[in-house]
Amino acid sequence: MATISSLGIGTNGLDVRSIVSQLVELEKKPLEKLKLEKTQTEARITLMGQMTSLADALNTAVSKLASVTGWNAAAATSSSDAVSVSANGGAQPTSLSVQVQQVAAARATASGAFAANAFVGAGTLKVTIGTAPNATTTDIVVSGTDKLSDVASKINGSNAGVTATVMTDPGTGQQRLLLNSKETGESKAFSLAVEEGGAPAGDTDNTGLSRLIFSDGTNTTFHETQAAADAEVTVNGIALTSATNTFADVVAGVTITANKVTTAPATVAITRDTSAMKTNIEGFVKAYNDLNDLLNQTTKYEESTETAGAFQGDSTLLAMQRSLRSALGSVFGSDNGGYTTFSSIGVRVAGSADSRPDGHLEIDSAKLTQALANPDAMKTLFVGNRVSESAKAQSAITASVGAGVPVGEGTLSIQLGSWSGGAFASAFAGNGATVNIAVTATDTLDDIVNKINADPSTGVTASTAGGALVLTSLYGGTQTAFNMTVTDIDGNNADANGLSRLAFVASNVAESGKDAVSGGSVGIGQSFKGLMTALLGGTTGNFGTAGFFKRKDDSLQTELDTNALEQVRVNDKASRIEEQLNRKYSALDVQMASLNSLSTYISQQIAQWNKSSS
Fold first, then answer.
1. Would you say the C-alpha torsion 2, 8, 10, 13 has a positive or negative sign?
2. CB 425 within 8 A of CB 418
3. Dihedral pair phi/psi, residue 613, rounded to 5°
4. What is the reported pLDDT for 400?
5. Distance in angstroms (rounded) separating the CA atoms of residues 111 and 519
6. Which residues form the Flagellar hook-associated protein 2 N-terminal domain (predicted)?
7. Residues 6, 8, 12, CA angle at the centre, nearest 5°?
8. What is the band of 407 on the pLDDT scale with cuts at 50, 70, 90?
9. pLDDT averaged over the chain?
10. Which DSSP string do the residues of 102-132 spell out, in sequence order?
11. Confidence of residue 90 (pLDDT cuts 50, 70, 90)
12. How many C-alpha atoms does 467 have within 13 Å on its Cβ side?
């Protein structure tokens, strides 16, 4: 503890500054603890930022496992470089025989020779793409002083569907106008006509601007250097044509590109892309381990270094970590060829026998490869399986709002959750998301149906019946219920007007979710995805719109703000006390100076008396 010293020095024998300074330092003593707490809280906030980033990465990885698209990934190969092929998630395994008879080409033309920098001639150049009745014509005004380079610039600036360049013969200096269609195919071929403003015969006399006319190669001064052509291929014996070299959705999800004419049929193979599926699983394992390792590091006490983690013993973080580990134990509730858990496909938690008793995930490569040989079972395991609507899916019907007329404006919020006692309980970890559907003032019931059906993440399909909206769950079982609320633009979400007429209420239930013997189940990827929603927030559920990480970070920010206020309070108090002490000790110093002066005077008087009496 600091002590007051330094008495007996200074002009009047009292070091006021030192005394006050030491007393003020005593008042500021709490700042040491506050500053330490501030540093610790800032470190925790930084760690929470790192955790949130790792949780985001895990959420991205989980989303790939919980999505049908990831499990429908297709790989496409071609036996010849004459044919390229790509496939999306809608492609089914197949083999195609492809021959290319002709590749697509764009029309190219060249004008007759013009003297260098010669004037072309005045008038209007008419560039026509295609043939009637689907032709489009662009007029380009050419002045009497325009040269070929000027005409080329005007064509390129007109968006006429062709590109223009000028070629110069270095030997003679003569110039030619070169034109190319911007797009391939016979329907994108162009023709050129002119209007010079005189007699019609002058528009085709091959003088002045009419030297640039061109129509299917009949003009002698402007000739075709490459004909427009459609691509022609044969797929499994069926002849197909395309204005471009790309043949999209030849079969569902497959796009074929003709690169050059084939000398023999090319074999195109579409297979399930198990390598992409494996990559997604490996990405999940890495993302999980990264987050789990940081949680272990920050919540544990490291005996070897005698170092405590920044969140040692933090009950909320430990509970969250337990939830993550619990989600790894999710069991798929349907018969799925033996694939019902993470461990059944080779993703397991390392135990003490592996010297990793910390929840670290490992992959049994042989087991995973075997499981990936059955990609449909893998998809069902992670995504879940759909069931008969009449058997087990919840359905609901709204009030009748009429067909073909605007319904109202606002937002429909479809929330996925579970049933309890024949009623919607709440969002749950298996889905736990709300999907918002924006409804405009002109949307009819059919428009709303199309919007809902266009977004599979709603978990429902929509239809109409008697002017009412009918919603049916995509999945069966009591754990795949839905609810729908309305945010009406008029602010009244419960009246019988506008969009609020579509609000879901208990009486609208046509069929509750049921668990039948054949059982439709939520995939383990969907279950894990629901947990990530709870941790990261962003959608309405049991955890509200702010997830665990956001709430934890907000709590730490509040601690930091409180700490800053407390430091200000301590400093303010110390300043007030310093001011008070300065006044008191300064007054005392003055008093002591006065007493010292009096003492000196008395001593002098006594000495004088002694002299007088002697």
1. positive
2. yes
3. -75, -25
4. 74
5. 74
6. 13-106
7. 115
8. confident
9. 81
10. E--B--EEEEPPB-TT----SEEEEEEES-T
11. confident
12. 10
User: For the chain, how far is it from start to end, CA to CA, in angstroms?
Assistant: 56
Q: Which residues pair with 175 in a beta bridge?
A: 114, 168
Q: Please report, for the chain, the start and end positions of each structural domain, with discontinuous segments joined by +.
A: 74-104+231-272, 108-226, 275-382, 389-520
Cβ atoms < 10 Å from Cβ of 79:
14
Distances (CA, A) of 458 to 103, 278, 489, 566: 43, 27, 22, 48
Q: Average pLDDT for residues 158-174, to the nearest whole number? A: 95
Angle at 396 between CA 395 and CA 397, to 5 degrees: 140
Helices then strands, each counted (H, E), the chain? 12, 28
Q: What residues contact residue 575 under an 8 Å CB cut-off, 6+ apart?
A: none
* Number of residues in the chain: 614
**DSSP per residue over 387-440, as a string?**
--HHHHEEEEE-----SSS---SEEEEEEEE-EETTEE----TTS--EEEEEE-
Tokens of 430: 């298996």
Neighbouring-strand partners of residue 419: 424
Please give the residue that has the higher pLDDT: either 494 or 174: 174
Q: How confident is the model at residue 265 (pLDDT cuts 50, 70, 90)?
A: very high
Q: How confident is the model at residue 217 (pLDDT cuts 50, 70, 90)?
A: low
Q: Which two tokens stand for residue 340?
A: 């019902």
Taking CA 168 as the corner, what is the angle to CA 163 and CA 169, rounded to the nearest 5 degrees? 140
Average of pLDDT values for 284-304? 88
Radius of gyration of the chain, Cα coordinates, nearest whole angstrom: 41
Percent of the chain with pLDDT over 70: 81
Q: Which CATH architecture has domain 389-520?
A: Sandwich (2.60)
- CA contacts within 13 A on the Cβ side of 103: 13
**Residue 387 CB-density burial (10 A; 0-12 exposed, 13-18 middle, 19+ buried):** buried
Q: pLDDT per residue over 433-468, tens digit each?
A: 577 889 999 999 888 888 887 665 566 777 777 777
Strand partners, 509: 396
Instruction: Count Cβ atoms below 10 Å from residue 47 Cβ, excluding itself.
Output: 19
Q: At a CB cut-off of 8 Å and minimum separation 6, what does 17 contact?
A: none
Using alpha carbons only, give the angle 480, 486, 492 rounded to the nearest 5 degrees: 150
What are the pLDDT digits (tens) for 508-554? 554 444 433 333 566 777 777 767 776 776 543 333 345 677 778 88
- Stretch 55-66: mean pLDDT, rounded? 88
Least confident window among 68-82, 161-175, 595-609: 595-609
Give Dmax over CA atoms of the chain in angstroms. Answer: 155
342-380 tens-digit pLDDT: 899 999 887 645 555 578 899 999 999 999 999 888 888
The H or E element that residue 138 is part of is strand 136-142
204-220 b/e with 16+ CB inside 10 Å = b? eeeebbbbbbbeeeebe
Q: CB-based contacts of 346: which residues, under 8 Å, 6+ apart?
A: 363, 364, 365, 366, 367, 368, 370, 371
3-state SS class at 360: coil
